[in-house]
Amino acid sequence: MNADVTAKRHTAGRHAATAIAAASARLTRAGVESARLDAELLMAAAAGVSRATLIAGGAEIDTGAAERFERMVARREAREPLAYIVGHREFFSLEFAIRPGVLVPRPETETVVEAALDFLRERERLADLSVVGAVRERPSYPTATVLDIGTGSGAIAIAISANAPGVRIVGLDISKVSLEVAADNARRHRCADRIAFLHGDCFAALEGSAPPFDPFDLIVSNPPYIGEAELATLAPEVRDFEPKVAFEGGRDGLNFYRGIAAGLPRWLAPDGEVILEVGAGQAEAVEEMMRAAGCAVGARRRDLAGIDRVVRSRRAL
Ligand code: SAM
User: Which of 40, 49, 285, 314 lies most in the core, judged by the most C-beta atoms within 10 Å?
Assistant: First the structure.
């Protein structure tokens, strides 16, 4: 009898709690840091119940759920990202569909969304000040245009749109799979009529459209920024499963920022802002590029780990 069949027989008919404990031990041995949490989330997905129900204890699993759980645990044991196995990931309190071929959105990228919403709120405040004594009917934010370069699952674009419904967004990506997933996520979150997804290589994706795009009020990006030296240090989840095009940033990790800086004179509106996620230790070099592109650099933002994560630059009028 092969090991797989033995494992299935042993798992079937158990309490979920027993199976979770055994899976957690396996995942720990495989080097998964959040082994217990992952085992619980896999069981919730396999059994179709909430994690809270599982934690409350006493849940029984039938043979079908036990088999699904076993297959999922084996994939996680091989260090496949949890989001690819369960098919979704939460970002900015919204659930995103995720599948292989698409970068799994990271918590630190929420810092980009926070900075973007601050910029849009500030525009709103200034617009209010300029309307003296007038009553205006409009959405909660003024119409601003936003470009999300390398939109991936649509995480940044959709989180902005869900919180700033008056904004028009273009999300572009070189990966067609990502654009399919992003469009699906936009429909889920009822943003599809406010976000256009375009296929192409950075700003080149904007060329040739009719009518032509105007320069954008806000450009955001979480570009690929891992340098060659860092590639060897990546966790297996990233190195072996996530798309290289989503994280490889060339020799020093800064290639993509060079391309963005080069496109700013054409694609950033006067007084527009650029909000870029950067890797640890990259903020200064990226700020230097933004200055060289004619921008004034604003305050950096740190992520929850205290790392300078977001560079903000404003184009001089
Ligand atoms: N914005 C998403 C997020 O934060 O979760 C994905 C960010 S991921 C780090 C970078 C994205 O850039 C990937 O989706 C990748 O396909 C895309 N990308 C890579 N090279 C590109 C290029 N030359 N033009 C457009 N998009 C590109």
Answer: 40
